[in-house]
Amino acid sequence: MRAVGLGKQFFGKWGVSGLDFHLKPGRLTALLGPNGAGKTTSMRLLAGFFRANQGYMEVEGKVYQTLPKGIREKIAYLPENGPVYRDLSVQESLWFFAKAKGIPSQQINRALTRMMEELDLGDVRNKLVATLSKGFRQRLALASTLLGDPDYLFLDEPSYGLDPIQIGQVHKIIKNLSKDKTVLISTHSLSEVEEICDDVIILSEGRMLANNSVEELKRKDKVFIQTNQDYDTFLHLLKSAGFSELKLISKSADSFFRYEVSLNDKKIEELYLLCSENKILVRELQESEESLKKIFKEITNK
């Protein structure tokens, strides 16, 4: 599924605009942003609840501004605080959603058994939803969303309000689901993105500010290197080869210097080759990685 220049207006004001990204099966993607960034609006656009005022979606090779029924039936959307009926048992609740989704009666028992096994709801199948912990209610909401085996799964703040143990349980479920489905979650939790997501789309005030893999986003254009070259000699060599910045970090007792080098458009392999050609001893060479929290602040200015 691909969003191309996607946007939605409300009363003449853009809720989101210019969204360009590609959701891939087998990769868990996060919409990351503060409250009011446009995460829920983006999800509802992708799920077919809203008609786009700008751009289009490409799904399975076809272009749409409004998703047809056949595509919408392949999409499951779980809103924040997903709907559960407190006066029903777990099994009754799942049965209700299965009927609402049009699953044939002869297939419902098998579908319910599968969902209760996958989300570990078997021990509470006869309990009233009202008596369940929030973690179990969230699992039930996920199970209800998964009935019908959707290809695309959009989860709005799936771990909001859960305790750390419950968050871990939900994260494990979502990560497993993303192995063979296209899964998008919205979150304002940086730790959640770092822990379970493969790709991240950063939103702020309805605009997309970043779209990359978590690994690439965290990888900065700087490396650490430890050599036997003094600062002035090494700086001259680097600048002659097109490297722009060199920062001395420390000097060891055996006269090895640890530097931070800015790569700019260069590659780490080019730095190693430069040292090798000039017979410079290299004791350490590694990429610098910054926390997602710091990067998020830099990108959003928040």
UniProtKB/TrEMBL annotation:
UniProt keywords, alphabetically: ATP-binding, Nucleotide-binding, Transport
Matching PROSITE patterns: ABC_TRANSPORTER_2 (PS50893)
Organism superkingdom: Bacteria
A matching Pfam family: ABC_tran
Domain ABC transporter residues, every copy: 1-230
Family named by the database record: Belongs to the ABC transporter superfamily.
Keyword ATP-binding: yes
Name of the protein in its database record: ABC transporter, ATP-binding protein
Species per Swiss-Prot/TrEMBL record: Leptospira ryugenii
SMART domains listed in its UniProt record: AAA
GO MF annotations, alphabetized: ATP binding; ATP hydrolysis activity
